[in-house]
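Translate sequence into structure tokens.
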Amino acid sequence: MTSISEATTALVKPGDLSLIVRDDTARWMIMRCPDGCGELLKINLDPRSGKAWRVYEDEQDLSLYPSIWRDSGCESHFIIWRNYIWMCGSRSESLGESKRGLRAKLNILSKGILRILNSEPTAYHDLAEHLEANPWDVQAACERLAKRNRVRLVETDDGTKVVAGTKKRKRWL
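Result follows.
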């Protein structure tokens, strides 16, 4: 779609969304708030226009990074990851793909993360950019690595969560 008014007419249910694309560049994401309040959200995707979110698309999946945290109206907080909306605090919705398929993707990402990670804390989105990957996938892979004590998750003074390598690495035969 190329106009906000055209996109708005297509949005009926909570969570419905449309991308506004001009000159082959995604400019806006227009969506009905997923919590059901009915508000229309206009999400900037163009960094030339100020603070912007990034859309990640692969095959049939769409993700948005970072999360949407409304500071007015219903004050909802949610993530759009692989065509699903996760209201924060609830990861109970299906990811829309087999667990085996997601596990395989996360395993491949984990290997890439361990290859490039050093002892300096690095934000998920920086790792994702380096790996040309979806930041939500990178975060999930880092959380799995942390559970296995392969990386450390660290929170910075401003509350940003980052990942750092461990001092000793296991060698697998």
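Note: The chain has four helices and ten strands.
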